[in-house]
Design a protein that fits this description.
Blueprint: H1 9-25, E1 30-35, E2 40-44, E3 46-48, E4 51-53, H2 55-65, E5 71-77, H3 85-95, E6 101-104
Parallel strand pairs: 5-6
Antiparallel strand pairs: 1-2, 1-5, 3-4
Protein name: Cytidine deaminase
InterPro entries: Cytidine_deaminase-like
């Protein structure tokens, strides 16, 4: 996994967005994605009695609803050591196998 200093400026922006979103909401996870046009989407986990969506799921939903045709990169920050199988499936189905999914802790330190 690359260290923060090895990331491109665009990927560091995703880490910052995911971290800020998670901190602002107090959610279990924060995520950010960049679409093929360079637009970014950041979101937190939604955990309501009638609706549960991962942070990555919310980001991909926002990208799809905005007309994005794919993704360039994904960052997810939380307590998990790796991206969940369902998050990877969401990313792969929408954007393909080659999209990097970077995982880190709540402070933005990538694993």
């Amino acid at each position: 996994m690359p260290e923060q200093s090895e990331l491109s400026a665009e990927d560091r922006k995703l880490v910052t967005l995911a971290r800020a979103t998670r901190a602002r909401t107090g959610a279990a996870e924060g995520a950010a994605v960049r679409d093929l046009d360079g637009r970014t989407y950041a979101a937190a986990t939604v955990d309501l009695p009638s609706l549960q969506v991962s942070a990555v799921g919310v980001c991909v939903s926002m990208a799809v609803a905005s007309g994005a045709k794919g993704l360039e990169a994904v960052v997810v920050l939380g307590e998990a050591e790796e991206a969940s199988a369902s998050d990877l499936a969401i990313v792969r189905e929408f954007a393909g196998e080659d999209v990097p999914v970077l995982v880190g802790d709540a402070r933005g330190n990538l694993r």
